[in-house]
Amino acid sequence: xxxxxxxxxxxxxxxxxxxxxxxxxxxxxxSFNASSLVTVWGGFSxxxxxxxxxxxxxxxxxxxxxxxxxxxxxxxxxxxVLAAVALVRAGKFRGxxxxxxxxxxxxxxxxxxxxxxxLLLFVAVGAPRGFxxxxxxxxxxxxxxxxxxxxxxxxxxxxSLEEAAQDLGCPPAMAFLKITLPAIxxxxxxxxxxxxxxxxxxxxxxxxxxxxxxxxxxMRLYSQVRLGVDPKINAISTLLIGLVATGxxxxxxxxxxxxxxx
Amino acid sequence: MTGRLQIGxxxxxxxxxxxxxxxxxxxFEAVSKRFGETAAVSEVSLAIYEGEFFALLGPSGCGKTTLxxxxxxxxTPDAGRILLDGEDxxxxxxxxxxxxxxxxxYALFPHLTVAQNVAFGLKQRGDPxxxxxxxxxxxxxxxxxxxxxxxxxxxxSGGQRQRVALARAIAPSPRILLLxxxxxxxxxxxxxxTRVELMALQQTLGMTxxxxxxxxxxAMVLADRIAVxxxxxxxxxxxxxxxxxxxxxxxxxxxxxxxNLFEARLDSVDGGRVRLASPEGRFEADDDDPPEVGATAWLxxxxxxxxxxxxxxxxxxxxxxxxxxxxxxxxxxxxxxVEIAPGRVIRAARANAARRVEAPLxxxxxxxxxxxxxxxxxxxx
Lengths: 262, 381
Description:
The complex is a heterodimer.
Chain A: H1 7-30, H2 47-54, H3 56-89, H4 96-108, H5 111-125, H6 131-155, H7 160-167, H8 172-200, H9 204-209, H10 217-227, H11 231-261
Helix pairs in contact in A: 1-11, 2-11, 3-6, 3-8, 3-10, 4-6, 6-8, 7-8, 8-11
Chain B: E1 26-35, E2 38-48, E3 53-57, H1 64-72, E4 79-84, E5 87-88, E6 99-102, H2 114-125, H3 129-142, H4 158-170, E7 176-180, H5 188-205, E8 208-213, H6 216-222, E9 225-230, E10 233-238, H7 240-245, H8 250-255, E11 260-270, E12 273-278, E13 281-286, E14 296-301, E15 307-309, E16 319-329, E17 333-341, E18 344-351, E19 366-370, E20 376-379
Parallel strand pairs in B: 3-8, 3-9, 6-7, 7-8
Antiparallel strand pairs in B: 1-2, 1-4, 4-5, 9-10, 11-12, 11-14, 12-13, 14-20, 15-19, 16-17, 16-19, 17-18
């Protein structure tokens, strides 16, 4: 029997990868372009990274994005763990399907609609748009993803672990913190990474819910592209890709390791 | 008759349930529990005594696990009371009960080492560290795991994990140890070894053990007394030998071991001797508390109490003839199915006491079955 992929398989994989990643590879390559014309290769240089370091507006946007990402991811993860516990452990309570449905709704809801409805909400309650409205909106968006990731792990954990802890003298809340939380920790970490990454590259919801002084990096990039492409954008995009890729790969590795141990 | 015959082949002086002055350690008083439409446990009353090895035996769904979980505190009775040392334990949550459980899945904490697992209950209680360490070492020695304290549960074999679970549950010296199908996950050889060790451990510790099992052999070997459960009710409580040799009804007779049942009408009672008639033959059995004359009763005879012969036994009651329809050779025993009428197969078993047999039996042989009046039990229901 023939082992390994056939010529057709190899061709299909290469074509697929090129289709998906060629634009990104080009972007990364051109971030090291010496020429100030985006489409003309003028030799290798890191001048755009140096220029980026001096662009205060861009750096502010990056810093805002990181803070929004970290805070919203933390919020979404805490709420996601609680939602997952309710969905997996609480059995059949009134409104269980309602909770599940509402949690997952944001997974399939178009971001434009989510962004618009959040904007309407903030306007209705008179909340000044800015850093915190973006952060809360991102927590809303990423909560569903965090819940799904934690829920999958929690469902695979033997319920009697927590019962055993209680049986041995541990009050219920402590049993959760001492036994269940360490057991689902990898999923919690993965959920945080995922939420952080989603927040990092969100443009739509941020555009709706942000206000003066809280411009996120994707918003800044988008507005700059409209004015004409500056090679600095390639540089910051490359950094962003690096960060997102690191987050996704770390989340994947953490989950893999946990799956092997379980 | 010379002297009064006793039920079962084992003499034991441990029988606290026969002492009217002794207070039971645990008493279930008409305990009921429903899950939605189904009654998991209905009106169960039981008394378990200090130092006893008590088994709850029954098929899955009979309520034995629910009963145990109510004792541990994970379920609350809908009606009735559970008394520990004479006090209602209903207000106590699981973590305040001096009752520890060994879970069927073992439920070892995966992120803790073996020693940390065993120490968990002691730590919760706030014992000083030196005491905990000493107790953990003692426990690991007791379950023959000395030196494995630093391993993690996923580095242990199934049998070793079972021992860790056991050590963890007994380390804080509970008043009662609950064992939920403790040997179900082990292979047969290991299960038999572990049974013996479990019995020795219970003797050494003098602790009260309550085991939940669906395996009748396990219950028979381990327990001082067995409660056979059916559909949320206790069908019979007694020593293993009582359950086997004097079952309360057809369900118990059939659940514990194999049994042949003959539906018959009670013809006459003469002292302790009962005569019955059925289309399959005339029967005689010993019974001190017989049903009324004319009533329907069931005669239960265990396969090993059937005498299987080629020559016809002397004319009289308690004999049947038929054709051998199946033979199962088990090594120590051989079981035979004898078809006495189309579709009606009676089981008989013979111990293989000798290596060579003069005239071995074969399929389709015409044979006779007979049993002594003392070998049969008359069941009223």
